[in-house]
Recover the amino acids of this structure.
C-alpha cells in the first residue's frame, strides 16, 4: 500500500505550539498594572521618607499643637534648635508633624505586610507539605489548624502581643500566626491533588527521593496560588497591624504607624479630623493597591481559582 | 409547531444540506478557520459519518448545524438548510422550535449532558412539555414508550432514577430517548460511544442503527474511530484540519480511499489480526513473574459498614526478556491496578511480584529504591505525565542523576535517547507545553528508557493519541523492544492495539484474569465467554484495516 510514511507526518506535528508565558499575561493585566504602580509609588515614598520634606517623626513642640493642615509652625530638633516647618497635614496634640509620621508610617506598614506574608507562607508551606505527604501527621496537624481557625484572628493577635513584649517582630508573628492555617489548608489541598499527577508518579518510579519530589515537582506547581494568597495576607496584615496599633496593643506609641497616629487623633476627631483622615487615606490606598494587585495575579496566574471566587 | 408526516417527504431530497460552510477561529490560534468551505448532505434514513482526528473541526460543524456555536467561533460563509429551510441565520426562537422536534443531538459524555438533579423521566418529559400540548397522561405514555424503545431494562425504575444511578450505557440510552422522543428528522451524534466500553459501544451502535432504520432518521455521526465507521456508516466524509478532503460511500472510501490523508489514516488503524512474529527465544530469561497478586481496597468509616473492593484477585503473569505481555480489559477490570502494583506505585495486598530474582511486592522503601530503576512506566495522559515546570532535558536527566550519574554523562545519554524516539536535540531546552501529545509521549518513553529498565510498563500509553500518532508510537514501542530487548507490559482496552504489539495476552474482567495465553492463539480462538464477547464487540471487526 502506497501510504505516505509516518515520518512525513511527524514533521508536520513537530510545530512548536506558541503560548504566551504567564509573566507576559501578568504584565498585560490592568489590575496588576494599577495595583503594582500604586504599590511601587508607596515603596518609593517609604524608601525616600527622610528626603521628602519630613522631620524626625518623634519630634514635638508644645507651641505647634493641633495645627490644621498647611499651617507653618515651629518645631525643635534634637539639638535644641527651633526650626520653622510647614505642617502639610497639620499636627497632633503633642505638636508632632502628622505628615512626617504618616510618611514614616508607610515604612512600618509595608514591612509588616511583607514579613507577615513571608512568615505565614514559610510556616504554611512547611506544614502543608507535611500534612499532604506524611499521612499519619495529616489528621492531628489539620485538627490543630481547624482549632486555630476557630478563634478570631484579631483575638489571637491581641493575646499574643499581650503575652510578649510589644515590638515589630512580635506584631509580625502575632499577625502571621492566624494566617498560617489558611496557607496550610491551601498547600495541603494542592499537594493532595498534585501528588496524584502522573508526573509525580513518574518521579517516584525514577527513584527521586521524597523531599526532592516535594521541592522539585510539587512546590513549583503550587507557586501561582501561593503568590496570590501571599498578596492577600500582605493586605490583611497591614490592616491588622493598624487595628492593633489603634487599639493600643500593637507597636509602642513612639513608633510612628498609621494605627498609632489614628489612635492618638481619636479623642479629637470632632475638632481635628485631619489626625485620622490622612493616615486613614494612606491605609485605604495601600490595602486597595495590594488587593487589586492580588486580584490581577489571581486572574492571570490561577484562572481556576478566579472562577471559584 | 408541526412534525412533518414522513410519507410526504421524497426520499431523494436531503434532510440536511450544508453548503460552503466556513467557521472562523479566534485570532492567535494555529490556523484562521475551524472549518472552511465544507459542503455535504444527509438524506432521509441515511447515516453520514464525519471522521477526523482531533482538531479537524468535526464537532464545530455539529455545533454550527444545531446553532450552538460559541460567540468566539462565528460562521463566516455558507448555508445550512434543514429540509429546505435556511437556518443559517435563523433567530434563536426558531432554532429553539426546531431543536428536539426536527433535529436533536447526543453527546460524548452522557453524565455531563444530563441534569444530575432531575430524574431521567422528568428530563424526557421536559422535552414534551416544551414542544407539545399533550396532557400529563399522554406525556407519561410517550415517555414510557420511548424508554422501552431504547431497550432499557425495568422502564419504570429507569424513569424515576437519577443519572448517577445508571451506568454509562444506560445514560446514553436515556440521552437517545430524549433526542428521539419527538421523532426528529435529523440526529446529530457527536462521538456518542467514545466514553463507553467496547461491549457497551457495540450495543449503543446497534441501537442507533435500529432506531434510525425504523424511524427513517437522517444521522450525522461524528467519530474518530474507523471501526465505528465501518460498522455504522452509509457514507463517509473525511475532515483534515477543517478541510473536507474526501467524501463517498462507505465501501468506496474504506476500500479505495482516493485522498492520501484517508489512505494514511486507514493504514494507521491497527488490524485485528496478530502479525506473524518471529518465534521468540523460548529460553530467554524470565524478567517478571507475578504470582497470586491481589489488591483490595477497603473503605472503613467510623460509622456504617466497611466496603471492600477487590481490584485484583489472584493474578499470575510472566514476561520473558524481549517479549510483550498485553493486559486487555474494560474499565474497572483491574488492569491498571495490576500495572501499578507491579511497579509498586500502590502496595499489593497479597501475592508476589518478582523482578528477576528480586521480590518487589513486600520489600520496604529502602530496599525498593535500587530496584525502581529496573522497571519504568509510561502513563496514558501525555499532558499530565511531564512536570510543566521542568524542561525536557531536566525531566530526562532526573532519573539517572538520582542514581549518581554525572550531569554531563546524563546529558549525553538524554541526547542519544531523544534521537532514538525521533526528537530533535533542540527539544532538550524546551518545556512540555511546546509539544503535541504524541511528542510528549515520546519524551515520556525516552524518560523511562533513561534508566535502562529491564521492564517497561505502558499503561494505556497510546489511548489518548490520534490514530496516526498512535501508529507511530506503537511502532516506536516495537522498535525499542526489538533493539533493546526489554520486557514490556502493555495495558490497553483496545484489542486492535493489543494485536499489534503483544506476544502473550491476559484478558481481565472484574479483577480476574479470565484468559491467558499466546496472543495469536487467543485472537484466533478465544475460549472464555468474556473474551468472545470482547471480540464480537470490537468495532469494524468484519473489515480489514491496516497496511
Amino acid at each position: 500500500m502506497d501510504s505516505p510514511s509516518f515520518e512525513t507526518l511527524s514533521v508536520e506535528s513537530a510545530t512548536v505550539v506558541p503560548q504566551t508565558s504567564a509573566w507576559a499575561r501578568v504584565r498585560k493585566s490592568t489590575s496588576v498594572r494599577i495595583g503594582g504602580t500604586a504599590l511601587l509609588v508607596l515603596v518609593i515614598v517609604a524608601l525616600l521618607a527622610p528626603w521628602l520634606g519630613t522631620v524626625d517623626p518623634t519630634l514635638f513642640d508644645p507651641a505647634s499643637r493641633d495645627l490644621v493642615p498647611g499651617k507653618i509652625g515651629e518645631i525643635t530638633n534634637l539639638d535644641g534648635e527651633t526650626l520653622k516647618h510647614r505642617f502639610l497635614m497639620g499636627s497632633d496634640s503633642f505638636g508632632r508633624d502628622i505628615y512626617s509620621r504618616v510618611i514614616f508610617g508607610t515604612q512600618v506598614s509595608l514591612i509588616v505586610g511583607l514579613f507577615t506574608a513571608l512568615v505565614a507562607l514559610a510556616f504554611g508551606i512547611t506544614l502543608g507539605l507535611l500534612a499532604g505527604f506524611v499521612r499519619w501527621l495529616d489528621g492531628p496537624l489539620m485538627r490543630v489548624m481547624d482549632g486555630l481557625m476557630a478563634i478570631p484572628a484579631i483575638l489571637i493577635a491581641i493575646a499574643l502581643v499581650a503575652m510578649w513584649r510589644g515590638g515589630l517582630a512580635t506584631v509580625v508573628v502575632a499577625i502571621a500566626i492566624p494566617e498560617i492555617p489558611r496557607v496550610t489548608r491551601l498547600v495541603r489541598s494542592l499537594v493532595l491533588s498534585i501528588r496524584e499527577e502522573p508526573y509525580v508518579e513518574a518521579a517516584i518510579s525514577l527513584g527521586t527521593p521524597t523531599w526532592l519530589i516535594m521541592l522539585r515537582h510539587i512546590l513549583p506547581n503550587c507557586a501561582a496560588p501561593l503568590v496570590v494568597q501571599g498578596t492577600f495576607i500582605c493586605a490583611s496584615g497591614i490592616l491588622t497591624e493598624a487595628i492593633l496599633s489603634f487599639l493600643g496593643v500593637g507597636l509602642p506609641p513612639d513608633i510612628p504607624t498609621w494605627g498609632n497616629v489614628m489612635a492618638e487623633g481619636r479623642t479629637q476627631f470632632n475638632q481635628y479630623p485631619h489626625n485620622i483622615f490622612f493616615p486613614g487615606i494612606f491605609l485605604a490606598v495601600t490595602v486597595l493597591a495590594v488587593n487589586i494587585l492580588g486580584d490581577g495575579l489571581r486572574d492571570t496566574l490561577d484562572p481556576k481559582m478566579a472562577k471559584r471566587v | 409547531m408541526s412534525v412533518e408526516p414522513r410519507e410526504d417527504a421524497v426520499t431523494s431530497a436531503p434532510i440536511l444540506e450544508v453548503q460552503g460552510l466556513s467557521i472562523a477561529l479566534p485570532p492567535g490560534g494555529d490556523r484562521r478557520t475551524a472549518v472552511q468551505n465544507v459542503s455535504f448532505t444527509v438524506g432521509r434514513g441515511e447515516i453520514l459519518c464525519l471522521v477526523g482526528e482531533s482538531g479537524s473541526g468535526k464537532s464545530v460543524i455539529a455545533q454550527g448545524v444545531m446553532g450552538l456555536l460559541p460567540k468566539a467561533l462565528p460562521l463566516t460563509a455558507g448555508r445550512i438548510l434543514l429540509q429546505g429551510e435556511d437556518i443559517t441565520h435563523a433567530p434563536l426562537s426558531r432554532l429553539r422550535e426546531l431543536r428536539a422536534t426536527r433535529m436533536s443531538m447526543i453527546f460524548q459524555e452522557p453524565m455531563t449532558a444530563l441534569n444530575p438533579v432531575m430524574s431521567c423521566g422528568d428530563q424526557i418529559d421536559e422535552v414534551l412539555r416544551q414542544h407539545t400540548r399533550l396532557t400529563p397522561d399522554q406525556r407519561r405514555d410517550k415517555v414510557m414508550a420511548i424508554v422501552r424503545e431504547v431497550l432499557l431494562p425495568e422502564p419504570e425504575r429507569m424513569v424515576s432514577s437519577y443519572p448517577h444511578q445508571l451506568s454509562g450505557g444506560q445514560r446514553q440510552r436515556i440521552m437517545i430517548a430524549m433526542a428521539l422522543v419527538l421523532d426528529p428528522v435529523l440526529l446529530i451524534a457527536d462521538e456518542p460511544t467514545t466514553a463507553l466500553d467496547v461491549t457497551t459501544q457495540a450495543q449503543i451502535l446497534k441501537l442507533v442503527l435500529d432506531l434510525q432504520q425504523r424511524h427513517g432518521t437522517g444521522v450525522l455521526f461524528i467519530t474518530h474511530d474507523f471501526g465505528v465507521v465501518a460498522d455504522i456508516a452509509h457514507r463517509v466524509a473525511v475532515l483534515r484540519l477543517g478541510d473536507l478532503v474526501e467524501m463517498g460511500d462507505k465501501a468506496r472510501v474504506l476500500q479505495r480511499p482516493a485522498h492520501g490523508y484517508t489512505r494514511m489514516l486507514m493504514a494507521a488503524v491497527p488490524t485485528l489480526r496478530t502479525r506473524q512474529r518471529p518465534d521468540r527465544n523460548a529460553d530467554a530469561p524470565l524478567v517478571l513473574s507475578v504470582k497470586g497478586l491481589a489488591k483490595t481496597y477497603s473503605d472503613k468509616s467510623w460509622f456504617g459498614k466497611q466496603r471492600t473492593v477487590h481490584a485484583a484477585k489472584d493474578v499470575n503473569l510472566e514476561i520473558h526478556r524481549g517479549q510483550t505481555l498485553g493486559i486487555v480489559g474494560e474499565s474497572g477490570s483491574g488492569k491498571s491496578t495490576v500495572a501499578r502494583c507491579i511497579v509498586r506505585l500502590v502496595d499489593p495486598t497479597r501475592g508476589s511480584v518478582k523482578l528477576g530474582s528480586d521480590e518487589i511486592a513486600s520489600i520496604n522503601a529502602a530496599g525498593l529504591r535500587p530496584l525502581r530503576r529496573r522497571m519504568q512506566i509510561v502513563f496514558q495522559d501525555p499532558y499530565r505525565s511531564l512536570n510543566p515546570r521542568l524542561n525536557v532535558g531536566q525531566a530526562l536527566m532526573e532519573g539517572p542523576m538520582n542514581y549518581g550519574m554525572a550531569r554531563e554523562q546524563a546529558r549525553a545519554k538524554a541526547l542519544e535517547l531523544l534521537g532514538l524516539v525521533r526528537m530533535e536535540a533542540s527539544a532538550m531546552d524546551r518545556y512540555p507545553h511546546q509539544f503535541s501529545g504524541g511528542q510528549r509521549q515520546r519524551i515520556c518513553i525516552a524518560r523511562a528508557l533513561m534508566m535502562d529498565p529491564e521492564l517497561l510498563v505502558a499503561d494505556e500509553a497510546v489511548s489518548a493519541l490520534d490514530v496516526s500518532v498512535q501508529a507511530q508510537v506503537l511502532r516506536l514501542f516495537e522498535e525499542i523492544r526489538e533493539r533493546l530487548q526489554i520486557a514490556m507490559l502493555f495495558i490497553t482496552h483496545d484489542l486492535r492495539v493489543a494485536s499489534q504489539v503483544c506476544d502473550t495476552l491476559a484478558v481481565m474482567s472484574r479483577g480476574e484474569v479470565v484468559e491467558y495465553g499466546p496472543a495469536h492463539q487467543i485472537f484466533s480462538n478465544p475460549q472464555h465467554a468474556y473474551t468472545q464477547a470482547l471480540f464480537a464487540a470490537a468495532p469494524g471487526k468484519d473489515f480489514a484495516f491496516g497496511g
Remarks:
- Chain A touches chain B at residues 1-4, 6-7, 9-10, 13-19, 197-209, 212, 216-217, 220-221 (CB under 8 Å).
- Chain A has one domain: 24-49+99-308.
- Residues 1-18 of chain A have pLDDT under 50 and may be disordered.
